[in-house]
Amino acid sequence: MGTPANSFGLFRVYDQGSLPSHNPRITSKAAQPHRWSENSTSTDLESSFFPYPNENSFRLGDWYWNQGTQLSQRNFQKLLELIGSAEFHAEDVRNTNWTTINCQLGNLDPAETPLATATPSATTDIEEWLDADSGWIRSTVTVSVLFHRCCLRPGPKDYPVNDFYHRSLTSIIHETLLNPTHHQHFHYEPYELRWQPPHKAQDLRIHGELFTSNAFLDAHRSLQDSPKEPGCDLLRRIVALMFWSDVTLLTTFSDAKLWPLYVFLGNEPKDKRGQPTAYLCTHAAYFQSLPDSFKDFVLENTGGKLPGDAFFMHCRWELFHAQWRVLLDDDFIEAYTHGLVLSGYDGIKRRLYPRIFTYSADYPENDTEEKRRKVAAARRLIYKNQYVVDTPQVEELLKDESLVPTVNAFSDRLAHLGFNLHLILVVDLLHEFELGVWKVIFIHLLRMLDSLKSNLLSDLDYRYRQVPTFGRGTVRRFHRNVSELKKMMARDFEDLLQCAIPVFTGLFPEPHHAVITRVLFLLGYWHGMAKLRMHTDETLGILENVMKALGEALRKSVAETCPAFATRELRCEAECQRRRQAHEGLGNGSVAETQGTTNDKNVRNAKVLNLKTYKLHALGDYAAQIRQYGTTDSYSTQPGELEHRTSKGRFTRMSRKAYIAQLAAIERRQARIRRIRVRSQREALMGDDPVPNAPDLHYVIGKSQNHPKDITNFVQSNTDDPAVKDFVVKLKKHLLPRIQQIHRENECMDMTLRTPRSSLECPDDDLSLFAVLTQVIFKGNHIFWHNICRINYTTYDLC
């Protein structure tokens, strides 16, 4: 069934014969911003802030934990507004036991919360946590380490890795769907988004969101075509899981690192998922690495000799997939097979089936049936016959496809259900292009300029520094010399590409300048097309054509232009290489060799541009991936990189001991405080008169008088606010003509209430106007505030 086309010619096509009961686009724009169950009853407002004793204690705790980690002027102003309000009383926070409250909020396992010591109202709140929040789980993961037959103690040995903190994937789904913030923009029904161009008879498919993609639609249709659960007639819908994981350093000057697993739900719009303040990213696990004591364990079993790097790499992969087996537990497999029966925030009961759609990570591992067969054969040699991990017999099976002898956890747990791992490993624009292909080409262009034996690199630096900023952070100022490549991130290389053509103009001689300019143009063209947030079938065809032209231009450049320049390492590259060699030499104790390497500072190795890389080859897959999963901003690694700032901010709040446990506790604490805030706001709003939904009116405000405010006190307490300047006079001027209109209408109904028109007419001179305004008197000298003011306005959202 299709919807009518909007003013832009966009319309939706649903598989079912009727429109869905829950439409997030309409709900989030036309309906009330706060929703609550009709069966809810008004409770004591103080209990809604549990474990905080009162509202002021909660507001202060919320400010501390959820208003950012930087002591900025903005946060300082928020604190001043909090403690300076008329409702704030110091005695409310003076005796608050903050330590106990923080422990309760940060408790990783809510089941350990002492129900016996809680009040009846608090017990209800704790039970709500037990229902909707399973907290974090600390597990011990066991890795089977194989020692070959020449070791002191040959055979497989179990090595336990402690403190693997993770959350249940099914509980994450449960918690998300019961959250009103998530519900208002959660899409249960996938659909095709199509566009009818005004100049064409045939409509076009629009690619953007995951819930409008072929992958989601195919999974939805497959689910509807599958047999239902016996005796169940509930709606069957899909919950789309999107995973991000990558290692990050928590600080600049220490070795504290974190390997988090982030989970987004693809049923939610990508623009919301990209906003950290929307809190749509869930921290699902903090992966553990092999501890330093693992080497002691290895030495005990080998007899004092450390194996090669291949052995330790194999153990790292074994640990990684062992942790994934913990995440893909029996509850998740049960939900994957038979679904989760949940009543959403709209009160409709559905059977929800989790499906994994994307896994965005730096250099993920592919897997196929043939690869699994080879891996199984290699593992038999290692674990049964006790061969070395990198022995020739094992390498013969694995080397051709660069495989590793590790059983993939996804294939192990989900392959029998039809899950195909290599389909979820999507392209990565940030690492493959911005920090991959473009970075390599840009550095080689610097080498080509450096080979001309002039000050061209200095000219390039000067030109980039002259580039003005554009937009709000779209193109930032280049403060450093770009040729030195110091502290450059992905966004810096993106800006370099966007400004490259005018900056490089005239630096290379002809005919090379024309070839290089064309390469830069096609790189920028491809990059812009690949990052579009909305694609059509036609624009994807353009992307494919640009990719073909880019490949031809790069091959021509390597064949004709690059050989004309005797390119060598940049000075910064050579210096970095010498520092690396010096560090490795000192670690190995080779002092003489290190000194010889360090003294030869003028040696720079020859460099050529290599096109035979995976990252360049992967650029040809982007059009197909967009057709299958939507645009790249939906599954780029950029949201995961952005979420690292949350973990780094939390790290500044804690001690450096057992920081992973503290990170998990702070995550729960902040999430529970946000839940308390939503619940308290919901209960406070239940006392207000309902605001009607009247889209034809410019604004709608309730008419209740439950919350009076003295006008004089209001003006005096806000003297520094420009909006309150001449507030009373402006308010009376606003009300005077409306009072006159009311009087005129009443003249015809009741002549006894008639007021002489001359006494309320607005004169021209200021003195007479002031005299008339003094006749406008406020009853009780009060105005009344409301929680909701609905302002209706026209938006131009395309879908």
Automatic annotation (TrEMBL):
Protein name in UniProt: Uncharacterized protein
Sequence segments annotated as region (Disordered): 22-42
Organism: Hydnomerulius pinastri MD-312
One Pfam family hit: Plavaka
